[in-house]
Amino acid sequence: MTTSQYGVEDASFQAAGGEAGILKLVEAFYRHMDQRSDARVIRAMHPDNLTMSIDKLTLFLCGWTGGPRRYGKKYGPIAIPSAHAHLPITEVEKDAWLACMQAALQEQDYPPAFKIYLLTQLTVPASRIVQVRQNRR
């Protein structure tokens, strides 16, 4: 599959291995968040028990990648920047979040082009969170 096909219908969801593949990615992501010193600040923004955080991110990413849209049914609608506006997220925290995701992606058996595509796409909402936070000051 070419990079240009990711993001069309459920191509990204399928490239990620469906819900099981996304869950595996999310679990690796939070494991890196627990282990990386550069992620301490963002880890502290989460509850000690990550069960709900894992579920939320998994369901969100499933829908975001073109798979089943179950996040809203379970947790209600989400606007990523405003949902995170109460948190002190700067470029430093954004970069730590993305570093955890990049490390988690490297562990997945995804096509290399998909890993690059997904990280690039995730940078957009992550940057938007920082931008909205800066505009509220």
TrEMBL record:
Q: Which UniProt keywords apply?
A: Heme, Iron, Metal-binding, Transport
Which superkingdom heads the taxonomic lineage of this protein's source? Answer: Bacteria
InterPro entries per the record? Answer: GlbO/GLB3-like, Globin-like_sf, Globin/Proto, Hemoglobin_trunc
One Pfam family linked to the record: Bac_globin
Q: Name one GO molecular function term.
A: metal ion binding
Hey, which family's this protein in?
Answer: Belongs to the truncated hemoglobin family. Group II subfamily.
Protein name per UniProt: Group II truncated hemoglobin
